Amino acid sequence: MKRILVAIDFSEVTPPVIHVARQLAKALAAEIHLVHVREITAAPMPGSLGYGLAGMPELAPMTSGARSRIRADARSHCGK
Q: For residue 21, how many other CB atoms are within 10 A of its CB?
């Protein structure tokens, strides 16, 4: 096993789930990949082929500063 995919929802169980995943990854010398999925309930934008950024500005391209803040937040949830 090379990669472990961990679904997270940022609830109170997220830190313990990440902790167990880290232990498993260490034992198996595997990488951890966190995924958070958000359901899109908005209707497609007129004239578009999909949902675009309908109500989800976080899907817009991020600046390097935003990426750094997200990484720092993820580290704090992991206990690093």
A: 19
Instruction: Pinpoint the alpha helices (H) of the chain.
Output: 14-28, 64-78
Mean per-residue pLDDT, 33-58: 65
Phi, psi of 14, rounded to the nearest 5 degrees = -60, -50
User: Please, are residues 45 and 54 in contact by the beta-carbon 8 Å criterion?
Assistant: yes
Sign of CA dihedral 9, 10, 15, 21: positive
CA–CA–CA angle 72, 41, 61 (5° rounding): 40
* CA separation for the pair 42, 68 (Å, rounded): 28
Highest mean pLDDT of the ranges 16-20, 41-45, 61-65, 66-70 = 16-20
